[in-house]
């Protein structure tokens, strides 16, 4: 029976659950049932579930597996040893799967070696004394050599090493010893930082920052157990401000891509690490999906900082498959099958069962237990030689078969050496750049570190910048105006060396090289391409990127676009120019303004609103004048018969005339009197003042500009294929990659159209694309960087143009291999040139000053107005004259027709007479004697009265009368003035009721005297009133 024991603190040993996890194999009762054991930490519920998931996924056609698992404290040597005892006696496990850590690995390997039972673990690997691990199968690879070679790659001679465990201390010693021994770094300076509590490591981080304060580049190796605790450690680095650009961290764990780096993104800090799992592998993807489904089903935490890392699950899966493959191989061979079945039968015999007891009277400390060689394990009773031999021999068979197993597992190629360590495996080297990790190389057990990309030698570059003994190899590509080949003038020799090139990038790099004190040589890329990935496995690039990766060049200086795909393989400086993707089309011919172009300063809607406002103001004036009494007036109608007439100036037609005259800034004789009408007129005058001022200010521009009507004006119209225009771009480059991979509309449709017509629209060079635009008669649009577009539009024959807004905000940068020390110096130099606006001056020189076309928006002299510019005004003038003549004829007809109705004379005679009078005055061929019309008596009296008033008011002086006759006696009385015949009768005091004039006018007898002194007539009425100076009644 199973033994139970109590520890020093009274803790009960973990309960054993036999029989759990019995899995059928489908071969009937003849299939043997093989017992196995499993030991997991109490906090490793996820690992236990992953173990049973692995058992379900492996092939068990030749056997059944009976699992006995124990949940215990793997940090306690006593608990782990007791759990192993329970798995062996009485369970009789053929093999044990379990966890380990730095505190218990020695105890485990000594105990299982004593009983010859394989212990398969994905946990901590102890590299010390490999011979003692005969029966421990380590699924976790040892990558200490990979760490050393990465340190060598970066040429770290001064760095800090952070550990938190005894195992970490051992790895630190081994790393420094091997690193110094194999690479002869006698001046190696390494600072050890021990972190007691990774959850609160602020004091240790402050000490670390202080130790590295004098270093311009601060290098730190982070070696923590378990590696997952780095997720707690990195946030404290950010809080301490140690995520600056000068820091470079190397994490020694095997799943750096699972680390939460949210606080380090975009901070400039460098973080390098290792990655065991290939997440692009289909098996790994399937495992991840199965594991996530199980986590949801079991409600486990399987991701995030506190979740269990997937690579641990993968290692456990591979461990189970190693055991089942080995067991299946032994059962498939008759001799080994017989040995396994005999051993299984002996273990089931109750007479052969043995008790296993662990004494717990010492409770060794962590470091002491690490050095144990003879643990307190005792076996009692019934261990005869035959049984002992059979049990140990099965363990040997299994261990030998497992170490000989080879297959491709979830963690890569699975193979072991004779000591049970992984061999023939590959681990990727990853580097954090911007917001994600990118592979920079990989390490293999046989070939060592293989760099996917070319790393510049730090020592050579540093010395070259000091003593100018090394030439920097610069690769470029001819793309005017960035890089041009110099064409010598007639009679001049051919330029050589760097003098063969000129352009924006050449002048810029000359300034940078002068600042850094380096020498360089420039060559053109052999395939004349910028750089695109041509194969995935192995990774291969063409163009300038390919030359950087193949060590044919040290720097790429050209109009090289900074893209995430390229940044995965090379490093870029800060952009020296920014741009967007733009559209180049053939420039259409300019159109002259239309006949009515003078209407263009105002839109059609505005003109409609102005006409409506004019009508509205006219109606407002009309209504205000009609309502207000001040606008009405009484007039005397002097026609026959004379009457009083009440009228107003602002009739409907006069109101409209007033409104129109005010709109065109003309005056009329009409003036409003009432407050309401004046308010209407005031707001209308203000309105017309603003509108006329705006119209006048913009009219000149609209009359002199020539319209440029483009077939497309934006990306949407290009995607729709308006006017049959096909888009195209360079056959290799970032522009093509964007359109063929994006999911944004309308750029996705443009990419699909380019792929549909790829044999027609893709070109090999920018010059070819520009030439295709010019020769395609407006049916081809070339997509390229906006800066290059602007340059070619300024070249003769000036028949291309850019339409629409550039898409995106990209930049051109200088590329270097990853790890090159030149990158930071180049970056600083570019920033200095930008701050001093040197790059802006270079841009102006190569784009503006060297342009060959006159800008359409330039400030040249204004062109003279052509007839077409003002033809509409002339048309309106002619039309207005015609309409006025027509209206005059209509008025003539209307008046003549009214005269015909009054005089009963024929229309022709009236029209001819009226026409002669209006055109020539009185006819010379016929004298017309006016006939005095017969007036009624009262009207005649009124007429004479009017004539008398006019005579008396006339400014012409009345001549003096002749001297009186001598026969006139002094006594004689003045003769009474006698009215003319009929005057007294019709103009007396008895007015007629039917005569309105007689009701108003009357006469009285008057005496007329002539004053010789004043030369005036003086009349005196019989009632005493006098008429003086023209007959005014006094």
UniProtKB/TrEMBL annotation:
- Where are the annotated segments for Disordered? 919-938, 951-998
Q: List the disulfide bonds.
A: 798-853
Give the matching SUPFAM superfamilies. Periplasmic binding protein-like I (SSF53822), Periplasmic binding protein-like II (SSF53850), Voltage-gated potassium channels (SSF81324)
Q: Where is the composition biased (Pro residues)?
A: 956-967
Q: Which residues form a coiled coil?
A: none
**In the record, what lineage is assigned to the organism producing the protein?**
Eukaryota, Metazoa, Spiralia, Lophotrochozoa, Platyhelminthes
User: Which protein is depicted?
Assistant: Glutamate receptor
Return the SMART domains for the record: Lig_chan-Glu_bd, PBPe
The residues listed in the UniProt record as binding L-glutamate, with positions renumbered to this chain, are 561, 566, 734-735, 785
* Domain Ionotropic glutamate receptor C-terminal: from-to ranges: 471-849
Specify the superkingdom.
Eukaryota
Protein's UniProt keywords contain Coiled coil:
no
